[in-house]
Amino acid sequence: MEIAAFIDRDGVINELLSYEFGDDKVTYITKKEEIKIIDRVDKAIKLLNENKIKVIVVSNQPQVARGLVTVEEVDEINKHINNLLGDANVDSFYFCPHRPTKGVNEYGIECECRKPKPGLILKAAKEHNVDLKNSFMIGDRISDIKSGNLAGCKTILVETGYGGKEGFQDAVPNYKAKDLYGAVEEILKRKIKLFINAGGKGERLHPLTKDIPKPMVPVNGKPVLHHYVDWAKENDIKEIVMMNGYKAEKIVDYFEDAMKLGTNVDFGHDYHMDIDERYRIKVRNPITTGWARLAEITQGGFGQSELGVVIAPTGAGKSMALVHIGATALKEKKTVIYYTLELAETVVGQRFDS
Predict the structure, then answer these.
(1) Which of 170, 189, 208 is the last residue of a domain?
(2) Residues 170 and 285 in one domain
(3) DSSP structural state of residue 38
(4) Cα separations in angstroms, 289 against 144, 199, 280, 310, 325
């Protein structure tokens, strides 16, 4: 399924002509010459395009029901907006032409598409095969937020346009942002990251691990770690965080080309300086890791709320780290994938980190 950013139009993508909160006086956009794109909107939408997030505009356009503009003219205005975005692209525009109390034509009716109802989002989600629970609704009004909440999306309120100045009423956004660009940054922060704990020396795989770390042991012609990176790419996971220790440079060297192609791999070295001695005398101390250490290694770029997938291999010295990370992920209803490279499964069951 697709991930989408549902975006309100007026006040989020383009500037409002004028507005007053007292009597809610609004000057509706009725011609393309009135469109002025808000700063950084093109860059924001381009970021969504580059990250394969569907860009779907959902807006109320009651001026159709008021007889100020036709459906066809709204379509032309939307096409003009897309042209003004340059290299950025809106995948689809959806709008509600209705106004039940002030309509002067056939569009002056009650409907299911006028926000705060979720009809527009639900229709777009069905037609674009969108995963609503992992998608976002971005708007400047509480009606946008309520619509997104009812549809099952995460919601972001921006300060442009109305800026949510009506008050939260019966809908509260999940996040707030200065503008659309800030909202997109918030979305990208929460994209799934892959955490791989791969610091073990792999003694039970010796002599295969004499000169290479355990994750580099070949399976079907390429390192086992390569299979997981391929899986991450296939599932559109853009960032991998890896904890590694023994012969870590072998992993870095191997995946250098992959990183140049756009896969962001963060390597964290988190083992004691006496690693060789510790393994030689078979002391199985856990590594000093946890959320605080992960945040330190990734300079704050790996928070608990961002963990989407955990690949948890067994191995000496990772007991407490995996128990903590895996349990936290499960509590947050995240996906935890377990694998092991042990030669003897009977030994695994006797170990704490199994």
Answers:
(1) 189
(2) no
(3) P
(4) 41, 12, 22, 15, 10
Confidence of residue 58 (pLDDT cuts 50, 70, 90): very high
* % pLDDT > 90, the chain: 43
Residues 52 and 179 in one domain: yes
Active-site annotation, residues: 8, 10
Q: Which of residues 143, 161, 189 is at a domain's end? A: 189
Q: Please indicate, yes or no, whether residues 143 and 222 belong to a single structural domain of this protein.
A: no
Q: Which residue in the block uniquely carries the two structure tokens 């961002």? A: 306
Q: Which strand (E) or helix (H) includes residue 264? A: strand 264-269
- Determine phi and psi for 223, rounding to 5 degrees: -55, 145
For 151-180, write each residue's pLDDT tens digit: 999 999 999 999 988 776 778 899 999 999
Give me the domain span that covers residue 289.
193-348
End-to-end CA distance of the chain: 33
Instruction: Say if residue 2 is exposed, middle or buried (CB neighbours under 10 Å; 0-12, 13-18, 19+).
Output: middle
CB 251 within 8 A of CB 242: yes
For 123-136, what is the mean pLDDT? 95
